[in-house]
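Appendix B. Worked example

We walk through a single record from start to finish. Start with the input: the chain for Tyrosine/tryptophan transport protein, Waddlia chondrophila, length 401.
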Amino acid sequence: MNSVQSNYRVFGATLLVAGCCIGAGMLGLPVLTALGGFLPTCLLFFFCWLFMAATGLLLLEVNLWFKEEVNVVTMASRTLGPIGAFMAWFLFAFLFYSLMVAYISASGQLIADRLQTLTGVIVAEWAGSLFLTLLFSVFLYLGTTMVDRVNRLLMLGLAASYLILVCVGSRHVRIDLLSHVDWSASAYAIPAMIVSFGFHNLVPSLATYLDRDVKKLRFSIVAGSAIPLVIYLMWEWLILGLIPLDGENGFRQALGQGDMATRALRNIVGSAWVVDLAEAFAFFAIITSFLSVSLSFVDFLADGLHIRKTGSGKVKLCVLSLTPPFLFALFYPGIFLKALSYAGAFGAVILFGVMPAAMAYQGRYRKNLQGPLLIPGGKGVLALIFIVSIAIVCLEMVTTR
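Next comes the structure step. The output line below is what the pipeline stores for this chain.
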């Protein structure tokens, strides 16, 4: 492989990591972070990026111990045994389901709001969620090629709407709204921040794609996860500078109702341009996230349950993938923000925080597996990652409301 092809692959891998992180979670982050304020939010985002980049490198270290391509469940099986494999499988399922519950709930909000704006008719949120769930089931049935083609177009819309929204909306930002600081309330958003840096399921594929080149892999993971950090901070600056914390349609009300930031925005900002751009961005963010997560989950279930992706098998997989989260979102409306937090604290943190630390400890010090050391510091750093992960889980349990 020549240097041009090599650099192109590194660039592509970096964008894959970034794209895996950026998505519908952005719609809930400003609502969850508003109580703490902009300055605490910036510091916590940096902490969460550092934590997730470190655990991603730790997972890569474990992956490189094995010569063949292995997924996270297989890595857990070989380092932690059958119990570890079961935990990894269960946590993946929990994470995927939690994220899809969040996306289905958010899609219902968005479609209902847009139809009401266009027609003046009040539409139930469950109807919007049902429409999108049925539409996605068609895409999933048609397979990866169809999903890929649709996703490429939607990603262009996502990037364009975000850039235009930042440019247009920045003229309406109020600096006084960014001065609020409440450190005690800031930690509430950590679980959702964590899941917004989730790229770890890509690590085995990246290792193969970059021919197990440690230097290139390290760069792709660190740089690829840093791109969302910059985008998230710009997004927080924009939204926290547009919407007040208190009052009607403020962040406190949005948090209490489990609303997305864009719903609060459409009720508080007078500029139709800003509102339309925000809702377009929300639409693209939800659809792209839903497509990627649901497609991954279909493959995950097909592998784990040994279901062949033929005609009847595809129908079973679509039903198993989409029906449970739709029913959950139907009976628990407004669960978008809670589902994001649960996905982060009980799914992503345990799966991509606790388990990489446990796998690395077993491989390094019990099984003496050999490979490049990507996270130095020995047992002390592994213990720190484990403790921080448990602390985040406990935080979510204490602050669940």
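Two observations about the output. The longest helix spans residues 72-119. The CA atoms of residues 69 and 208 lie 7 Å apart.
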